[in-house]
Design brief:
Blueprint lengths: L1 H29 L1 H11 L1 E5 L4 E4 L3 H8 L4 H31 L5 H14 L3 H8 L6 H5 L4 H7 L1 H19 L2 H12 L3 H9 L4 H30 L4 H11 L4 H26 L10
Antiparallel strand pairs: 1-2
Helix pairs in contact: 2-14, 3-14, 4-10, 4-12, 5-10, 8-9, 10-12, 12-14, 13-14
Length: 289
């Protein structure tokens, strides 16, 4: 029995290796060398663009980011603040919409397509042009017609918070398509028998959400949390990404740009490690021993 059990576990392990093999091969062929060379560039300065001559500067580029560059740290803090605010809003909104679309409502297929459509047409250059045109700053505030007197009555501090929240909702709506699909897949994977037995015991919809739906959705919540964090920090419209790109190709400071990229990458990596470590005991995996 033990031999069969180990054999089955090894088969599952081999199947996992087969599934990740294309990514590992692609990473080794196309990304490993550029990643290592960017780290090498971080400790050098390009002194000749034509023949790409390098001069070793040690940790100077990394020190420059925190000591001499007056734009990096404020921009970095602003980007982190935006991610901290947007990520919970995206997760909560996506879960609510997914729960609504999981019910047998009229036009369910249309609404699913409507929420995923921005992922197809609202990413990359298309979304960048919309943001440059003003979408995402004050579109929602002007669209719902909030009078100026309301903001004056709330005071400058609270009105600024409300205005910022409404202004970012437009962009948040455009970033929930993938998360909604993942939540829908998780909701449809919950056995219906659990809800039926709970109703027989007199449980309400609210109780079933907290006792059944939410615990069984924690793996998908963690997946969406990681995806949203990575998507937020690496989006083409992210100001930090734009700053790093401009530093490399506009100012022609490729060594310093590589150092900025590695600082940014290490922060994201540490953040994801903390997310996995802090949520390890909160995530419920079905079928565990």
């Amino acid at each position: 029995m033990l031999g069969r059990k180990l054999s089955l576990e090894r088969k599952k392990m081999l199947a996992g290796y087969v599934y990740i093999a294309p990514w590992v091969i692609g990473f080794a062929l196309f990304m490993l060398y550029p990643l290592a060379y960017s780290l090498y560039l971080g400790f050098h300065e390009v002194v000749g663009v034509g023949n790409f001559q390098l001069r070793s500067v040690g940790w100077e580029n990394f020190n420059k980011a925190f000591v001499l560059d007056t734009n990096f740290v404020p921009l970095f803090i602003s980007v982190v603040q935006d991610a901290v605010i947007n990520t919970p809003l995206i997760i909560v909104f996506s879960l609510i919409i997914a729960i609504m679309l999981n019910h047998n409502i009229r036009g369910r297929a249309f609404f699913r397509a409507a929420f995923f459509l921005p992922v197809l047409i609202g990413s990359g250059l298309a979304m960048q042009q919309l943001l440059y045109a003003g979408v995402g700053r004050d579109t929602l505030v002007n669209g719902i017609g909030v009078p100026d007197e309301v903001f004056l009555y709330m005071g400058p501090t609270f009105s600024q918070i409300v205005f910022d929240m409404l202004s970012r909702l437009t962009v948040i709506f455009w970033k929930t398509g993938v998360q909604i699909l993942l939540f829908l897949a998780g909701l449809q994977g919950i056995p219906v028998s659990l809800y039926e037995s709970s109703r027989c015991d007199g449980a309400t919809e609210w109780e079933m959400f907290w006792k059944i739906t939410l615990p069984l959705m924690t793996p998908i919540i963690l997946l969406n949390l990681v995806y949203t964090c990575v998507d937020s920090f690496t989006d083409i419209n992210n100001r930090m990404m734009v700053y790093i790109k401009d530093t490399a190709f506009t100012k022609i400071e490729m060594g310093y740009s590589s150092a900025l990229g590695w600082i940014y990458f290490l922060f994201i990596f540490v953040l994801l490690v903390l997310v996995f470590a802090s949520t390890r005991r909160l995530v419920v995996y079905t079928g565990e021993k």
